[in-house]
Amino acid sequence: MIKDEEIDRVLSLKDEILPSSGFAASVMEAVRREAAAPPPIPFPWKRALPGLVVAGFALALVLVAGVVAITQRASTTPQFSAPLPFVMPPIFHGGIESAAMWTALALLVAFVSVKFSMRLASGRG
Amino acid sequence: MSASDDQADVERVLAGDISAFEGIVGRWQGPLINLAYRFCHDRGRAEEMAQEAFLRAYRGLGQWRKDAVFSTWLFALATNLYRSELRRIPVRMVSVPLDDIAEPADARASDGGLEDHDRDSAVRRAVLALPAKYREALTLFYFHDMDVTTAARSLGLPEGTVKARLSRGREILRSKLPQRLAVPRLKEA
Q1: Quick one: which of A32, A69, A88, B53 could link to B78 by a disulfide (CB 3.0–4.6 Å)?
Q2: What residues of chain A lie within 8 A of the CB of B58, using their CB?
Q3: What is the pTM of this model?
Q4: Tell me: domain B1-89, CATH 1.20.120.910, correct?
Q5: Ramachandran bin of B156, using left for φ above 0, alpha for ψ from -120 to 50, beta for the remaining angles
Q6: Chain B contact for A35, CB < 8 A?
Q7: CA-to-CA dists, residue B33 to B41, B177, B179, angstroms
Q8: Residue A98 burial (10 A CB sphere; 0-12, 13-18, 19+)
Q9: Domain residues of chain B, as ranges?
Q10: Nearest-CA neighbor of A121 among A42, A35, A38?
Q11: Do B18 and A31 touch (CB under 8 A)?
Q12: Interface touch B54/A27, C-beta < 8 Å
């Protein structure tokens, strides 16, 4: 079995390589390019804020409407649920609470995906 | 290589004098390329990885806390980059199973052993075929002249963990390398 001293001897050998002649220049060129590049554009929070507030309000409204619809449905008779026209997508056939739930879920997924992509983008900057 | 030179250059770069970074590149290009070369054994790729390490160092100069010397910070940054690069695109030799590469290709019938070159090459290839955590510990340990503390700092691991990985890595090497590698070399007698 090979001894530790032999492993030490082999792996301690300095088989050093010299940098290419243009290496330092190439690094400095990349650094200068980096320095000359404009800084990453920050997210325009001020401009986006009204839109985000409206979106948040709409989301809250949908959630409240959904909850109200569910509670009303629970207290009314089943005959209230008239079938929707066939042209409507299948998710609307389940009634208003189902549509509200799907809308809320879609808004939530969109919000999470926007937040996630923004976090990824800022992490690379 | 003086730590005060590094600090002075870093301060100049942070003050806006980009050309001062040239001093840092000049002092550390050799060590960074050689460290990368030990990870990948490919000169071209080593230079590419070292260049990326310098770029990241330039971007992150402001994050260097002066409680550690500049070289420690630089090596830790480079080591992290090299490790993630090799995880992304592994060295081709590593894909060869350890059991396959351990067998010497050029055994000398006359003395029952191998020439120095073959012996060294077999040990190095065996290191490259180790699982990443043992390979990285061994690579850093020997690069830093067998200094566990510095190797642990570069890897961002506790010293005890690095010692355990070194021990296990050597154990795997000992068990996998062929008996003939252990035969004393007659030329040295």
Answers
A1: B53
A2: 31, 34
A3: 0.64
A4: no
A5: left
A6: yes
A7: 11, 28, 34
A8: middle
A9: 1-89, 95-180
A10: A42
A11: yes
A12: yes
